Amino acid sequence: MGLTNLNLAEISITDFVYFPLCVLLFTALTQRRIPHVRWLNAIAIALPLANTAYLLVRGQQFAWFGGFHLALGLALWGWQSRPNIFHKFTFFGSISYGLYVFHMPIMNLINYVSFFSGSTFSFIARALIWAGLTIGISYILELKLQPIIKNWFQKKVLNHF
């Protein structure tokens, strides 16, 4: 039937080594207490370490990615978040839908700029331009333009019913 050449995404068992780290991050951000957190911390460090070693032995290109997660696991080992540390990020909650909608189209537009690519500097510059444009457009549309449109729609359309 021609089903042998399907290009389905493959999920490797090594993708699950980051689950304990995600649980720790979630509990740290939500300030939840879970039992046996020290064991989970040890597992969250050991699994990415083993995965990174495995990828390095196999000569995988993205072995450094596991090293990043290992460093994050080590950072979360004794980290206790203060209740008000995340209130500075509430701004992103007010523009989160705009960020969700516009991040990919802006990224695709930036990818069309071919003369400004090929080096580490250009990658960093493009990432900063992408982040700035995405946050700026989301801010303008969500916090400035949306209230104007909502008020106009309320006055012109909904009040006539």
If you had to describe this structure to a student in words, what would you say it looks like?
The chain has helices spanning about 20-30, 35-60, 65-75, 90-95, 95-110, 120-155. About 65% of the residues lie in helices and about 0% in strands. It is built from six helices and no strands. The N and C termini lie far apart (about 55 Å). It is an all-alpha fold. The longest helix is centred in the C-terminal third of the chain and has 37 residues, at about 120-155.
How many beta-strand elements? 0
- The ordered H/E elements are HHHHHH
Helix content: 55-70%
Helix and strand composition category: mainly alpha
* C-alpha-based Rg, rounded: 22 Å
- Estimate the strand proportion: under 5%
- From the spread of the alpha carbons, the general shape counts as flat
Continuous helix count: 6
Q: Compute the separation of the termini in Å.
A: 56 Å
Care to give the gist of this entry?
Helices cover 65% and strands 0% of the residues. With 161 residues, it is mainly alpha-helical.
List keywords for this structure.
mainly alpha
Please describe the topology of this protein.
Blueprint: H1 19-30, H2 37-58, H3 63-75, H4 90-94, H5 96-111, H6 120-156
Helix pairs in contact: 1-2, 2-3, 5-6
